[in-house]
Amino acid sequence: GAVVSQHPSWVICKSGTSVKIECRSLDFQATTMFWYRQFPKQSLMLMATSNEGSKATYEQGVEKDKFLINHASLTLSTLTVTSAHPEDSSFYICSARTGTNVLTFGAGSRLTVL
Amino acid sequence: AQSVTQPDIHITVSEGASLELRCNYSYGATPYLFWYVQSPGQGLQLLLKYFSGDTLVQGIKGFEAEFKRSQSSFNLRKPSVHWSDAAEYFCAVGAGSSASKIIFGSGTRLSIRP
User: Fold this and answer.
1) Which of B34, B102, B109 is the best residue to mutate to test the A interface, defined by the most A CB atoms within 10 Å of its own CB?
2) In this predicted model, what pLDDT tens digit does every residue of A54-64 receive, in sequence order?
3) Is the Cβ pair A4, B101 closer than 8 Å?
């Protein structure tokens, strides 16, 4: 079946640095990918919709200059957390549409900002 | 606005016992409904989905869910749980045109008593 791969699965960084998370669709093309954020013991909150070859669409309240999304190819979307701070520590999950109204999720990337 | 409510934060059942996880949704039209499962530190796996047709939907791992429009519910059931079913379960509704966005409930954590 379709697989969505995220890398890295776990990253620690210092406050003020930037971190890039990759989301790849394996063996299929994804014109649209979605980025979610999940706080401990909470649900997933949609951050943005990533569209290949165009600007991402951000949900209300999500800082687009803070969370840079690039979808330069049909198999890769990246999320860059710029000038990260401890409050940005979270579990970030991407997904891609793999069927009619069906999403396949990556395994997630845990970010810890010191 | 579309929303999903999972009233039970945490449920514990004995291995071999039956299970029902509750989900209520708010949506103006016929909803696209999903149940996902998340193991600790992992992404989400689709258990089952409802788009139309038969209101009793069969999924993977022996799960099923029943769509009840009159009650705005989509409860997840399993006749006999296994220790490996311990996880976080999310109900979700597809929102927007062609369910382009997935809105998640707050999740129910399932623990299995030996």
Assistant:
1) B102
2) 899 999 999 99
3) no
